[in-house]
Amino acid sequence: MKKNNNGENSSSDKTLTRSAFWASAAFYGLIALEFFYMFSPFAAYFYGVYGPGLELLAAGERTSRLIAFFMPHIARETQSFFIT
Question: What pTM does this model have?
C-alpha cells in the first residue's frame, strides 16, 4: 500500500477498496436474487413450461452436455441416505 507524507493510504487504494467492496456486494446480491428466483412460483412455471424441451435436450447424445454444463442445479432423484 502506498502511503502519502502523512502516513495515510493514498486515494487510489481507497478507490480500489471501495470498488472491490461494491463488486463483491453485487456478486452476493446476484446469488441472493437467484435464491429468491428459484424459491418463487416463476421457477415452477419455468420448469413446467420449458421442462419438456430440457428433457429433449438431455435425451440427445450431442445435446446432453449442454444440460450438464449449463443446468447443473437441476435436482435429480437419487438414492441417498440424506435424501431418503
Answer: 0.42
